Amino acid sequence: MKTPLPTHPLRSAPDLDPLLDAIGDARIVLLGEASHGTSEYYTWRTALSKRLIQEKDFQFIAVEGDWPDCFAVNAAIKQDQPTYGSAAQLLSTFNRWPTWMWGNWEIAALVEWLHQHNRQRPLAQRVGFYGLDVYSLWDSLQEILRYVEKQGDGAVHAAHQAFRCFEPYGDDPQEYAHAVAFVSDDCQDEVTEMLRALRKQVAAQQPDGLLAREQQFNAEQNALVAVNAERYYRAMIEGGSASWNVRDTHMMETLTRLLDLHGPDSKAIIWEHNTHIGDARYTDMRREDMVNVGQLARQAYGRDQVFAVGFGSYQGSVIAGKKWGATPERMTVPEGTRGSWENLRHQQLQGENALLLSQELRGHEALQKSIGHRAIGVVYRPEFERFGNYVPSIIPDRYDAFLFLDQTQALHPLPTPQNEHTPPDLYPWNY
């Protein structure tokens, strides 16, 4: 008879004590999810994030979301009195498909808590909320124009040049991507010059205090998004792993900049899909020369400073689209396939939830080889799941801990009207 894996019961927030102990003094805590549409992933990440903020003084949460939309949330939760109405109204800015990822009632509850928490702290110590992703090319360009025109000289000319370069494509990134695939003209030089000019302008200023520096950071970050988004959309047309690597490298660069902004003792909580936070070197992503945030963070800061927590479930329901840009639906998540990580944990735990710590798993020989581990993107077809939704993984090396939730339910989206333009299709890596 095989020896069962060591586990810890997982019923309520106090059951996270062994995980908090294992995290120790890590500077970066990466919290994953096996889908972008499962309620329990959001609620358990919220429970853990609250404890990290309250007990270990983490300074910010950074998520797999667009910078401008998340920065609006960041500014709102640092106000003494809310001027945004309700959290649900604030989150209506997340109106680009997939709207449900951050426009949902679970995030609304987190936003309310962050605002209440921040009101009890000095301005310079209020917890932030930022976006790491690279899709917001046009929104970021518009933010830059507003900033440089308010500031006056410096980067105004470069910003207008960049904006005019993209103007023929409206605000449709897919049109730009397809256009530059067939002609030599692109906007790379324009966005690079805009970033250079903006950095020069920012370097000449000396803002006082974290919040003032944060406003400058916002402008520079939008320019960085424009540079890397332009690279991303060009790489996407070429195919292969290039666009994935541009995206995750951008997210890692943004995380590094945020840590630098908040000072040498700052600590970060990251919310992203398992495919971004679980070290790619211990999955089949490595064969495709794909890197991710989990790998890059460990390489940059050291294994002892980075703690990655994977999430997964055996069966339930999820919010997703049947194809890219489709109307989101509540779908059934079938039982984990035979022999998968999820199926084996279900058998062992007989329907119970559990916390597993990698330091306690490494002595088990069976876990030193790859095992199928479910990953559901924003596009999902349950009937085809076994053909492409399992990522071979060495679990104890990919993550430092794992939250197994046997039965899970779909996320609760807000009724947000969708913007007519959808980012280009990322399939098969729609995480």
UniProtKB/TrEMBL annotation:
Gene3D superfamilies documented for this protein: Biosynthetic Protein domain, EreA-like (biosynthetic domain), EreA-like, domain 2
Domain of life: Bacteria
InterPro entries on file: Emycin_Estase, Hydrolase/PRTase-associated, UCP036794_erythomycin
Annotated PANTHER family: ESTERASE, PUTATIVE (AFU_ORTHOLOGUE AFUA_1G05850)-RELATED
Protein name: Protein-L-isoaspartate O-methyltransferase
Source organism per UniProt: Hymenobacter glacieicola
